[in-house]
Each structure stands twice: as C-alpha cells, then as structure tokens.
Amino acid sequence: QVTLKESGPVLVKPTETLTLTCTVSGFSLSNARMGVSWIRQPPGKALEWLAHIFSNDEKSYSTSLKSRLTISKDNSKNQVVLSMTNMDPTDTATYYCARILVGAVTGRFTYWLDPWGQGTLVTVSS
Amino acid sequence: DIHMTQSPSSLAASVGDRVTVTCRASQSIYTYLNWYQQKPGKAPKLLIYVASSLQSGVPSRFSGSGSGTAFTLTISNLQPEDSATYYCLQTYSSTWTFGQGTKVEIK
What pLDDT score was predicted for residue A33? Predict the structure, then answer.
C-alpha cells in the first residue's frame, strides 16, 4: 500500500522559514518512474502546485515562488523535504505531498499525481 | 506559465443528470491533462489521467475527453457522492498548473 504523510510545524511566524517533510512508504524514491510533488491549498481556495522532484534529482519549482522554495530528498529515509523562506500570512494553507507517476505518450513523458497525503495545515501568524 | 481556466466555477444538478466540466489551456498541452476530485476536508483523488484514461477503481460514469487546449470531464448519471470540487491539472510544461476548480452540488 502506497502512503504519503506530511509533517512539520502547524504555526510559523512571519519571515520565518517553513520546513515540511513528506515521508513515503510502499514505493521507492529511487524508482525511475516516480517522483514526489508538493501542492498547497489556502483555506477555501484552489489547489496550487509548488514543486516536484524525480528519482534522478531533477527538480522544478513554481515560477512565482521559485526564489523561496527548495526541494530535496533522502532516499534512505524515504523522505522529501520542502523549505519555504520568508513566510507570510498569505502562505497559510494546507500543504500536500503526492506521488508522481510517470508514463509515456507519443514519445514524451507524462505525469499524474496519485495518491496524495492527508495534508498538513500551516498557519502563518505572529 | 500555462494558464488553466475551468468553467463553470460551480453548478447544481440533480441525481441522474449528465454533468460537464470544461478546462481550457492557454496553449496546447496535447493530452497532458489530469482531473481530480476533492471532497471537503479531504485530499484530492485522481479520476482521469492523460485526458481520458480512467484511474483504476473510479466509477465508469466519470469520463474525460479533449486534446490541445480544450478538455472535458463528464459525469453521467450523477450520484449524491459526486458532490465535490473538481480540478484539472496540466503536466505538459516543466511548471504545472491547476485550474481554479468547479464545485458540483446536488439539487
């Protein structure tokens, strides 16, 4: 059974750095056809993709948040870590991690997210 | 970045109805489009990947179609448990983007 679980602080202060950990089980972070993505959702709002990392350590970041995000992984610990600097109250959201599955369509890689972790609510407030 | 526009933002339909949700991309994304269902307080769940492939375990009343810039999620024979918010996600570019969501309610 594949599971992902997010962990980290529930409350951070403005200007602090948020560090979240996604611990996975049931699959390997070194699997060439998989990766892990981070997504967030402010209360009552839409989903927002943040970043992802693949088995070969290839990474991608949201254009609007790129300067504040860092994603990394530790295959031996089955963990993916997301750091976000200079937190602001507008960053209050539920943060999800999800497994990326890799397929191929007409010679090009394609991707989908399944399953997702349960999410963790992070509140930014002084 | 590729912008994804969903319509409508919300709809209400009766049990047994056929419901259509549309997602439009700001440029061609071929078929690199997924659909997710999210119920209140829960994580999103994958319904459709690569525009039209039904995820294992998802009821066959859900279907996806489209390519290029226009995509559709169809729920035939709407059921009470289909009340949820539906999101599209493009994975064509190196930076991914979600649509803004469509809330489906049961009359």
Answer: 86
